[in-house]
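Our platform keeps sequence and structure together, in a single record for each protein. Such a record has a labelled line for the sequence and another for the backbone structure tokens. This encoding replaces a full spatial description with a residue-level series of whole-number codes. Below, we set out a record of this kind in full and without editing:
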Amino acid sequence: MRINQYISLNAHYSRKEIDRLIKLEKITINHQVCHHSDLVDPSDLVQINGNTIENTGQPIYIMVNKPVGITCTALKTVDSNLIDYINHPHYIFPVGRLDKASDGMIIMTNDGGISNKILRAEEHHEKEYIVTVDKSITKTFIEGMSAGVEILATKTNPCHVEQISEYVFRIILTQGLNKQIRRMCKVFGYRVERLQRVRIMNLVLDGLEYGHWRDLTAGEVQDLKGLLN
């Protein structure tokens, strides 16, 4: 297959990023600087800045129930990074992010194509969270969170917010602003005690133990791709 297709399948790079790296002569095949038209065989050694891009032979899709304290990054130089924590036998990377202080679902893959589609569609697909706050939830809080909140020089989109108990609520977002839920709560004088992501689009965390991971089923991958088309 072509070099850009090979890297897109096995590493977290967009086609645009790959083209830029080829132009900068940062990608090599068998220690030789590659060109856009080069083809890769399964036995070839492909490296970016000297780091080997492994050929897994097939796309990998896993769901992680990330614990608090783990950072969602592919940079192994970062302490307590998700790559070292999962210790998967093949190269995979997180799709999107989940704050170090938060727990719950994160998707990891080696499929750059589906990763880019998920991230591009971030303003449209649903992400569901269960949130515990430091004081009693009021009707005013629920209504205000639902209507949209002024943070980061913008107003968040209207969203579904549902009270579960005195200190716990459910929120479904179609945005991905930095620390969005924590910032929204702070506007109303609340501090988040726990923030857990329990769903991304069609993928639900139910049954996956805290700190564990599993492969997505063929049906889950098929449905996910259908939502992204």
Observations:
- The longest strand covers residues 192-200.
